Amino acid sequence: MDVTAGNQTTFEQLGLSAATLRQLKTIGYEHPSPIQTALIPLAVTGKDCIGQARTGTGKTAAFMLPCFEQVDTKLDSIQVLVLAPTRELSEQVYAESKKLAGNLKIRFALGVGGRPMGRQIDDLRNGAQIIIGTPGRIQDLMKRGYLKLDDLFIAVLDEADRMLDIGFRPDIERILKACPSDRQTLLLSATMPPDVMKLAQKYMIDPASVDLSEDRVVVDTIEQFYVTVDEDRKLPLLLRILAAEKPQQVIVFTRTKRGADKLYEKFSRRLKSERIACIHGDLPQRKRDRVIKDLRAGELRLLIATDVVGRGIDVSGISHIINFDIPESCDDYVHRVGRTGRLSSDQNGRAVTFVTLAQGGELTNIEKRINTVLPEYQVDGFEAFQKKERKTRNIRRFGVD
Ligand code: AMP
Questions:
Q1: CB 113 within 8 Å of CB 187
Q2: CA distance 148 to 169
Q3: Nearest residue to 314 via CA among 251, 256, 364
Q4: Is the CB of 29 under 6 A from ligand 1?
Q5: Ligand 1 site, residue 57, Cβ cutoff 6 A
Q6: 47-65, pLDDT tens digit by residue?
Q7: Are 228 and 356 contacting, i.e. CB atoms less than 8 angstroms apart?
Q8: In terms of Cα–Cα distance, which of 166, 14, 24 is closest to 83?
């Protein structure tokens, strides 16, 4: 499936300049994706906009192309700031933006932690007009006087929900307060919890809203299942599912960093020949980069990840998501499952969520959120065990005493 499937709108209809249109042709973008169709015409007018869409839907171009239209390439100062929750996402946005800009003569800087500051400072000194980065490093560059926001006229908050989850609210507020007040603000978020709405109310003026939310994508394009399991049988169950599904690439989500490490250890002992890795926030940046690179190159078949890091992964080969631990929040479920069935990949994805007996209520909350009752995943050899579980679950689901 491709990101523009079924969309007959043309880029010419979206109010983009001839130079941008030529550039899009050069990189082979023929039609806009739905989020691009909806957001670009609003954002090019300079209006504040809220776009509800996830990574993988073409949202980078949706907010970046309107920025390109407005950037003055003769001016050697930062005019656009994009804040993103993680280094990985920032780097992804940076790479995609550079590809999009091609020979438009726009200069970019990347402002992320875990990387030497020298190159970032050089890019700013060399007259970058657009900076993309994480709130910590962006503030660092501001405090040290390398990043000046006087000429800024667009601030973009990418994956705003995740930035707030991580606890970046005070940083985002400080940065927005340092931006000129007559700027345009674009906010992108996969979900719209009250915290994000509050931020929008406080820092945006009469924003236009575009909703291409992940919930719908998740429901429409990804086959989802639950499976009941005792905590101590999760690993054998996982191995069975992997044997049955033969995934092209799979991400196994755990709730905690420790859980991820433990599972990785057990896994490596059992499957020595498999190409597996583990990624979470405690891993040094170098290792995280390596893992993502290997995943993208198809060298990894299985990745164990926690929510914060897993969220930034946008790789087209992911065919399966296993929620080894049921996610803590319904939003996390939507984000995790959204890692598969990427719009740029050829196949729909499959997601299986492990649910212990005590977690029935959490599963129901997820089902309410995505407005779908998940079918049960059948695994040979686990039936006897499952039958017992199913009975209990049916009582919970249908209120039978
Ligand atoms: P994003 O959601 O911005 O991460 O984009 C997901 C993928 O879709 C990236 O690989 C983009 O290069 C690609 N993409 C975005 N917009 C288009 C388009 N209009 N036509 C073809 N590919 C696109």
A1: no
A2: 21
A3: 251
A4: yes
A5: yes
A6: 999 999 877 789 999 999 9
A7: yes
A8: 166
DSSP string, 158-216: TTHHHHHHHT-HHHHHHHHHHS-TT-EEEEEES---HHHHHHHHHH-SS-EEEE--HHH
Q: Return d(Cα 390, Cα 401) in angstroms, integer.
A: 14
Give me the amino acid identity at 105.
Answer: K
Residue 134, amino acid: T
For the chain, domains (ranges, CATH) are 3-212 (3.40.50.300), 216-397 (3.40.50.300)
Instruction: Decide: 58 in ligand 1 pocket, CB within 6 A.
Output: yes
With contact defined as beta carbons under 8 Å apart, do 360 and 391 qualify?
Answer: no
Q: How far apart are CA 55 and CA 189, in angstroms?
A: 9
Q: Output the CA 57–ligand 1 centroid distance in Å.
A: 6
Contact 247, 253 (CB under 8 A): no
Return d(Cα 270, Cα 251) in angstroms, integer. Answer: 17
For residues 388 and 176, the model is more confident at 176
φ and ψ at residue 195, rounded to 5 degrees: -60, -40
Q: Residue 374 Cα, ligand 1 centroid: separation in angstroms?
A: 29
Q: What is the pTM of this model?
A: 0.65
CA of 234 to the centre of ligand 1 (A): 36
| 3-state class (DSSP) for residue 382 | coil
Question: Which tens digits make up the pLDDT trace of 122-140?
Answer: 999 999 999 999 999 999 9
What is the Cα–Cα distance from 223 to 211, expressed in whole angstroms?
22
Contact 97, 64 (CB under 8 A): yes
- Ligand 1 atom, smallest distance to 53 CA: 2
β-bridge partners, 304: 252, 278
Residue with tokens 């890091």: 309
What percentage of the chain's residues is helix, strand, coil (to nearest 5)? 45, 15, 40
Q: Pick the atom of ligand 1 nearest to 100's CA.
A: 12
Q: Reply yes or no on whether the pLDDT at 42 is more than 70.
A: yes
Indicate which residue's Cα is closest to atom 5 of ligand 1: 58
Q: What's the distance, Cα to Cα, between the start and end of the chain in Å?
A: 45
CA distance 264 to 257: 11
How many CB atoms neighbour CB 10 within 10 A? 13
Q: Are 321 and 340 in contact (CB under 8 A)?
A: yes
